[in-house]
Design goal:
single chain; Translation Initiation Factor IF3; about 30% strand; globular
Length: about 90
Amino acid sequence: MNEVEVLELDARGLSHPEPLERSMQMLRRLGSKNCFHLIIHRYPQPLIMIAESHGLDYEVCEAGKKEWHILFSKDKDMDLKSIMKRYCSV
């Protein structure tokens, strides 16, 4: 399998609405050979709802207090659980 390009965004500490705005920019960049890794200080419910409404796959991990890792992909066959192991051991 070819290496997956991971688009990264660390949104911890950004004020509302910046995390959602920047995340939406990243979601628009998704293709079949990349995924989007978001690090954020709280669970991003609105973003998750948007991803679901657009048919995106996602994997979520709470790594610690105020540290969430979320991977998003357009490719239903992408192994997000395996990729998440790079960022979160929970």
